[in-house]
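Thread: "does anyone have the structure for this chain?"

Original post by V.I.:
We have the sequence but no experimental structure in hand. Need at least a predicted one for the grant figures.
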Amino acid sequence: MTDETAKPGSPLPHRQPAPSGLKLLLEIGPLLIFFGVYSYAGIYMATAVFIPVTIATLVASRYIFGKVGILPLVTGIFVIVFGGLTLYLADDTFIKMKPTLVYLLFSAAALVGLAFNWTVWKQLFGEVFQLTDEGWRKMQFRWGCFFLAMAILNEIIWRSLSTDFWVAFKVFGVLPLTFIFAMAQMPLVKRHGLVESGANSNTSTTNGVDGAS
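Reply from O.Q.:
Generated one for you, tokens below.
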């Protein structure tokens, strides 16, 4: 019979790393469920399910990874507030406006931060990328512009097109656009990346940014 309790001089037991795709699944899972429920039961039922599922994924992220990214956390708070208003007032305008406000918040944090020489992106993604100061400023500016463009796009779509189209775009439009944009930043990462001697490189290109949906 073996004793798995750590003994003096032996390495402490540690949690096994989570599967690489689990974080992405937790971030996009609520959107997929939202789309599925909407297809059968409409916007209000989808919103009613979206709120607890979002909370559950935040709790799961905290348990599995030991922390919750700031972008998914902020997005989750907006889901709770604006989803709650949607259900309480029976007005789907609130849940449709939620992405716009989230995108504007992230865009303002990025662009206004640059005006005050605050590299927010370095604070958020410093564990993922190692960049020069110039690289961080360029990346932050690009993402700030991207989020601003997504806010404008969301406003155009929900105000001028059907709810069916808006819901489909949230899943099948926003995610691919975000992924493509993130991949387009790889030349910048390579050009302004720092190489740490003796360190193995391990990066994830889209950690955190999908939460904005």
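V.I.: this helps a lot. The radius of gyration is 20 Å.
O.Q.: and Residues 1-16, 196-207 have pLDDT under 50 and may be disordered.
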